[in-house]
Amino acid sequence: MQIILTQDVKALGKKGELVNVSDGYARNFILPKKLGLEANAKNLNDLKLQKAAEDKRQKEILEEAQALAKDLESKTLDVKIKAGEGGRTFGSISSKEIASALKTQYGMDIDKKKLQLPEAIKTIGTHTVPVKLHPKVTAELKVKVSEQ
Fold first, then answer.
1. Average pLDDT value for the chain
2. At the top level of its lineage, which domain of life is listed (predicted)?
3. 136 vs 11, 34, 35, 61, 93, CA distance in Å?
4. How far apart are CA 52 and CA 6, in angstroms?
5. Dihedral sign, CA of 64, 66, 71, 75?
6. Separation between Cα atoms, residue 10 and residue 78, nearest integer Å
7. Of all residues in the chain, what percent are helix, strand and coil, respectively (each to 5)?
8. How far is residue 99 from each of residues 9, 42, 84, 105, 142, measured CA to CA in Å?
9. Class of 68-147 in CATH
């Protein structure tokens, strides 16, 4: 019997997949627990429409991320830090501070977890910080660190 899974089922498949199972397994386990639907013409058509809508939504999300990446790469973020003699800094600039500076200077609300900062910035100058906006889109943000 062919079943369309409505939820992930361990050792069987993921949500939205079309799988072949024995009749007894379908009647006694999958259908009563509402883990899947019988694969008839109506349900197959609904599945096709759901996949098309999901693909369209994913494409829109990707396009938004690409537009945001282009916008981010055109901007330079100015961050100030206290420094002593010889350009030695007191403290460092973390991803949290970069995210809050982005919000105050440009009004862009980017999660600090999306900033791929390998370690905190401890030197004065211009640094590039990779920002992972989408699994397929990574932008380079220029951060200009200057003395306060």
1. 90
2. Bacteria
3. 29, 34, 31, 11, 27
4. 16
5. positive
6. 50
7. 40, 30, 30
8. 39, 48, 25, 10, 13
9. alpha beta
pLDDT digits (tens, 9 = 90+) for 60-100: 999 999 999 999 889 898 988 888 877 778 888 889 999 99
Domain 2-65: which topology? Ribosomal Protein L9; domain 1 (3.40.5)
Q: Which of 49, 30, 33, 31 is nearest to 41 (CA)?
A: 49
Residue labelled with tokens 């809050």: 100
Confidence at residue 84, expressed as pLDDT on a 0 to 100 scale: 80
Cα-to-chain-centroid distance, residue 73 = 18
The CATH 3.40.5.10 domain(s) of the chain lie at 2-65
Residues in the chain: 148
Residues 43/111, Cβ–Cβ less than 8 Å: no
